[in-house]
Design goal:
This protein has about 180 residues and is mostly helical. It has a single domain, classed as Orthogonal Bundle (Arc Repressor Mutant, subunit A). Helices cover about 60% and strands about 10% of the residues. The chain has 8 helices and 3 strands; from the N terminus they run αααβααββααα. It has a 3-stranded antiparallel beta sheet. A hairpin with a 2-residue loop joins strand 2 and strand 3 (about 105-115). Helix 3 (about 55-60) crosses helix 5 (about 80-95) and helix 4 (about 70-75) packs across helix 5 (about 80-95). The longest helix has 28 residues, at about 20-45. It is globular.
């Protein structure tokens, strides 16, 4: 008797499935991607009355306390250096930041917020405070602190993955409570 030929479906290599943990992480990623889009849109709406965008707000917020290089700003936010350079150049052209010599590095100038930039940032921050207070009341302080702890843990774990280390990414895990856009 000839050997039984498997049904086509049996012969096709089965695709590996995610574990329950992998499925939960993948679902979290979908929510975070959607949240990123929503936060960017909200940030743009909050920054627009001051003539700014979320991207410009991020750079202003990064240098609110102390001057930083473009590369440091990019790492702090987990962004590409080139995109931060473009935004910083636009802010400098508008007089909201200025480039200064960096005593620690001959070529990497420091980005420093100007008085006009500080006034602009404060206007955005005032709008953000009202928005954050309203949303915080709806969601609840306990749930928000729980979400913060979980997201910090996910960020720390993801930062240490080979995929991010190989691309030089993932070092932007610092948080800025008072200036973080949206």
């Amino acid at each position: 008797m000839p050997e039984r030929v498997p049904h086509r479906q049996d012969a096709v290599k089965k695709v590996a499935t995610r574990t329950a943990e992998g499925e939960a992480f993948s679902e979290l990623v979908v929510h975070v991607f959607r949240l990123d889009g929503l936060l960017t849109a909200a940030g743009d709406a909050l920054a627009e009355p001051a003539g700014q965008t979320t991207a410009r707000w991020r750079v202003l917020a990064a240098v609110e306390e102390t001057p930083m290089t473009v590369a440091q700003i990019a790492r702090a936010w987990g962004l590409a250096r080139q995109s931060v350079q473009r935004v910083a150049d636009l802010l400098a052209a508008d007089g909201l930041v200025a480039y200064h010599d960096n005593p620690a590095h001959r070529r990497a100038q420091l980005v420093r917020i100007t008085p006009r930039g500080r006034t602009t940032l404060q206007r955005i921050q005032a709008a953000q405070r009202n928005w954050a207070n309203t949303l915080g009341e709806h969601i609840g302080e306990h749930d928000l602190w729980t979400a913060n702890r979980i997201l910090a843990r996910v960020t720390a774990t993801l930062t240490d993955t080979p995929e991010l280390r190989a691309h030089g990414s993932g070092s932007g895990s610092g948080t800025r409570r008072s200036t973080n856009p949206t």
